Amino acid sequence: MTRHATPNLDRINIVPIVNTLKEFLATFSRGRRFMKVLALENVLGNIVLFFPLGVLLPLLSARFHSFKKVVLVAFLFSFSIEFTQWIWQHFGNYRSVDIDDIILNTLGGVLGYVFAGRLFAKRARQQ
Where are the domains of the chain? Predict the structure, then answer.
């Protein structure tokens, strides 16, 4: 028998930046090394996860040469992950839903797009 759960509102963060910043600052002020690593992994991991998306989308299709389209796709893809995590909470999943993940993932896609644009512009100038 499948255990159905009600999503826990404690595991849903819809306030941008504030909670992540508070946890990040608290972690570094306490001096717990393992917590610092986890905090950095969370922030950097969300950015790095979507960096390839920003690089690859324009390479895969000319439709994604637009900055706005890459931002939109990164946002929607990240949103769909968080929405899925929210749905899974009904079935006992422990994952939290966090607007900051969406922001950081989208930032990763943007940084990948900017990096790829600069890299390819530099190569075009060299040729």
Answer: 46-126
Cβ atoms of 102 and 13 within 8 Å: the answer is no
Determine contact, residues 100/45, Cβ cutoff 8 Å: no
pLDDT of 1 higher than 50? no
Alpha-carbon distance of 79 to 48, in angstroms, equals 16
User: What percent helix, strand, coil does the chain show, rounded to 5?
Assistant: 80, 5, 20
End-to-end CA distance of the chain: 64
- pTM for the model stands at 0.84
DSSP at 15:
S
